[in-house]
Design a protein that fits this description.
Number of strands: 12
Helix content: 55-70%
Membrane topology: Multi-pass membrane protein
Distance between the termini: 74 Å
Keywords: Ion transport, Membrane, Potassium, Potassium transport, Transmembrane, Transmembrane helix, Transport
Family: Belongs to the HAK/KUP transporter (TC 2.A.72.3) family.
Largest sheet: 7 strands, mixed
Radius of gyration: 30 Å
Function: Potassium transporter.
Strand content: 5-15%
GO molecular function: potassium ion transmembrane transporter activity
Strand order of the largest sheet: 7-5-6-4-3-11-12
Oligomer: single chain
Structural class: alpha/beta
Length: about 775
């Protein structure tokens, strides 16, 4: 007994040891990806705060007031709001405005995505910690929001606005961080002109964006030590400055100094808040980059290192300024003791590059989420890490960010103007997060509305004061993120609107089941060997593309599968729950439906496994259906029911998948029905297409089991024969036009804007990794 208890305690100890090891490793890595931005703020906060009329109030009390504001802002927003509250609202480990939105969409019917099904709610990642929809209380507020479509559209627009501001951050962070660090050269090299500093900054920026395709994980191990050494150095320098210049600065930790500051400076002090706000920039990256780490690792890193080091640095800089008022524009570099200036300068430049990396990663994450939820044109998403799922690179977005970033650096040429723009972008994202969090508290956490109101009033009022101050700086550079956000938001909303109208057209023009049933098993056409995969966005019914194809070419494959690849508002769909298989019409028709579900963070791999998985899933469905029919529990309606097919369970399957050169046991091998000439042609095509020739060669065999139902056996044989004959992918090549009766605005949105986006983004075949060699496109005109 004692031995068992000892073994159990050892096991427990090993488990905790592994947990802490992983926690500290992730916390260590998070410095490189998440905290770069927050840790480089001391480079420009005091400079921006004293850029306006506040420079007329150069006395100790004003400096103490500014530091007091920085300290309390830094404590209330990053520490209390984000670390304590918001990080707990992650969506299965995902953060950012879209993660909060998808969390809301699952707990209330806010989603505007049309192809959601009841089966999606059965996904294991749909509800958190065993929360089920049936124990959800339907509050009057929830019913009110669900009933009014305009309110749901407003919610989506607010989320899009927040997401666009994160993209705005992705443009402004590299510009301000790199420019601020490089400008330190002018403190020692007095002859260096502004133009030369800007050229050096641009070279660094181009290098940074050019390195993105190497992936985040390679960079994280490189960047983490840089940020940790940087934080420890600026913390120590801050402490040195406090002791050396003005030890009484610690009095300013009292909020009383904030009141004295506003009494003394009035409106000048209020306008300077736009600069003080820069001490919390990068806080949103802590939440948006959560996908790469865990909330506990980010909390550990923040509380143990970030918070104490940065508070000491801001305190030290304030102590230095209180005795050297003339050095405010370059206070960070001037406050560094001379012997360590150059090492700190090099560290500052490296830390600025890390800061830019943090927000670029967050931008890729946000764009991927927008794309998955139908709000962003199709882009190429490259998965950059074999070990860490969810680390991605998007080439198109990377180069757009680079061009915009260089334009901002060359256009503004001044960190104060970029700081004004940056402040607006950051505070807007935080404000959006506060409103979404209030809804999360009510609908997801199911707390009293009073808690949500308290959260909203407390944090919302602090952020509203900062926002009002930032808005005053719109003419001095603050317009940049607003213009950027407006452009990105128009792109997102036009894409979302066009996609939704196209889906509604598909839904209204479905082929009736009655029409298919009257055609009989051969569908009134020639059924040729092979599997035909018809891609559609519909989750029920037969799309118009099918009747369109059949009327133009009266022949079709002997096995028909309607494939719908759709996004579900969860971050990840477990591989075992990805495939939903069903049957269309009677058994003799050989028509199936397959719905492939992906989460908004899932990356669709470019692999050849899909066809094989699909055949295995259909075979399992055929067996499952036969077992249920014999027990009398099967739904026999023409649409049938959909069943989740677990791809990892191979036991009990009558269909065996082997490598092409492997010998089978007691099973029937099916030869391809193609003629010798066709087969040689196919192999010639495959040699020309390298992606196809690299594929794993497999063959399917039906096992020789005596107990098998003859009908099931016949259907499995037909399925294997069709697969051996080859697979063709059929897609609609759609042209979308607005109806003649439409308003001018709708015609412009559909015929010009949406059409332009469709022509200039990746094609659906590329986004779905469909091999070009097997693709057939059917022209369709949509009048929406």
């Amino acid at each position: 007994m004692d031995q068992e208890r000892g073994m159990a305690s050892d096991h427990h100890r090993i488990h905790w040891k592994a947990y802490y090891k992983n926690l500290f490793l992730l916390a260590y890595q998070s410095f490189g990806v998440v905290y770069g931005d927050l840790s480089t703020s001391p480079l420009y906060v005091y400079r921006s705060a004293f850029s306006g009329k506040l420079r007329n109030h150069q006395d100790e009390e004003t400096i103490f007031g500014v530091f007091s504001l920085i300290f309390w802002t830094f404590t209330l927003i990053p520490l209390l709001k984000y670390v304590v509250i918001v990080l707990s609202a992650n969506d299965n480990g995902e953060g950012g405005p879209f993660a909060l939105y998808s969390l809301l969409c699952r707990h209330a019917k806010f989603s505007l995505l049309p192809n959601q099904q009841a089966a999606d709610e059965e996904l294991s990642t749909y509800y958190r910690h065993g929360q089920m929809s049936r124990n959800m209380i339907t509050s009057p507020l929830k019913r009110f929001l669900e009933k009014h479509k305009r309110l749901r559209t407003c919610l989506l627009l607010i989320v899009l606005f927040g997401a666009c501001m994160v993209i705005g951050d992705g443009v402004l962070t590299p510009a301000i961080s790199v420019l601020s660090s490089i400008s330190g050269l002018q403190v020692r090299a007095k002859k260096l002109h502004d133009a030369e500093v800007i050229i050096i900054a641009c070279i660094v920026l181009v290098g940074l964006f050019a390195l993105q395709h190497r992936g985040t994980h390679r960079v994280a191990f490189l960047f983490a030590p840089v940020v940790i050494i940087w934080l420890l150095c600026i913390g120590v320098i801050g402490l040195y400055n406090v002791i050396h210049w003005n030890p009484t600065i610690y009095h300013a930790l009292s909020p009383h100094y904030i009141i004295k500051f506003f009494r003394r400076t009035g409106s000048d002090g209020w306008i300077s808040l736009g600069g003080i706000l820069l001490c919390i920039t990068g806080t949103e990256a802590m939440f948006a980059d959560l996908g790469h780490f865990t909330d506990s690792s980010i909390k550990v890193a923040f509380v143990a290192v970030i918070y104490p080091c940065l508070v000491l640095q801001y305190m030290g800089q304030a102590a230095f300024i209180s005795k050297n008022f003339s050095d405010v524009p370059t206070s960070f570099y001037d406050s560094i003791p001379e012997p360590v200036f150059w090492p700190i300068f090099v560290l500052a430049t490296l830390a600025a590059i890390v800061a830019s990396q943090a927000i670029i990663s967050a931008t890729f994450s946000i764009v991927k989420q927008c794309h998955a939820l139908g709000c962003f044109p199709r882009v190429k998403v490259v998965h950059t890490s074999r070990w860490i799922y969810g680390q991605i690179y998007i080439p198109e977005i990377n180069w757009i960010l680079m061009v915009l970033c260089l334009a901002v650096t060359l256009g503004f040429r001044d960190t104060t103007l970029i700081g004004n723009a940056y402040g607006i972008a950051c505070i807007t994202v935080m404000f959006v997060t506060t409103w979404l969090m209030a809804l999360i508290i009510i609908f997801v956490w199911q707390k009293n509305v009073l808690f949500a109101l308290l959260f909203l009033i407390f944090f919302g009022s602090i952020e509203a004061v900062y926002l009002s101050s930032s808005i005053m700086k719109v003419p001095q550079g603050g317009w940049a993120p607003l213009v950027l956000s407006f452009v990105f938001m128009v792109i997102m909303y036009v894409w979302h609107y066009g996609t939704r109208r196209k889906y509604q057209f598909d839904l209204q023009n479905k082929v009736s089941m009655k029409w298919i049933l009257t055609l009989g098993p051969s569908l009134g056409i020639v059924r040729v060997p092979g599997v035909g995969l018809i891609y559609t966005e519909l989750v029920t019914g037969v799309p118009a593309i099918f009747s369109h194809f059949v009327t133009n070419l009266p022949a079709f494959h002997q096995v028909l599968v309607f494939v719908c690849v759709k996004s579900v508002p969860v971050p990840y769909v477990p591989v075992d729950e990805r495939y939903l298989i069903g049957r269309i019409g009677p058994r003799a028709y050989r028509m199936y439906r397959c719905i492939v579900r992906y989460g908004y963070k899932d990356v669709q791999r470019d692999d050849d496994n899909f066809e094989n998985q699909l055949v295995m899933s259909i075979a399992k469905f055929i067996q499952m259906e036969a077992e249920e029919t014999s027990s009398g529990s099967y739904d026999t309606s023409p649409e049938g029911r959909m069943a989740v097919i677990r791809t990892s369970e191979t036991s009990g399957s009558r269909l065996v998948m082997r490598d092409a050169d492997e010998n089978g046991g007691d099973s029937t091998i099916v030869r391809s029905s193609k003629s010798e000439t066709l087969r040689s042609l196919q192999s010639l095509y495959e040699q020309e297409s390298p992606s196809v020739s690299r594929r794993r060669r497999v063959r399917f065999e039906v096992s020789e089991a005596d107990s098998m139902d003859p009908q099931v056996r016949e259907e499995l044989m037909a399925l294997v024969e069709a697969k051996q004959a080859g697979v063709a992918y059929i897609m609609g090549h759609s042209y979308i036009k607005a109806r003649r009766t439409s308003s001018f605005l709708k015609k412009f949105v559909i015929d010009v804007a949406y059409s332009f986006l469709r022509k200039n983004c990746r094609g659906p075949a590329v986004a779905l990794n469909i091999p070009h060699i097997s693709l057939i496109e059917v022209g369709m005109i949509y009048y929406v």
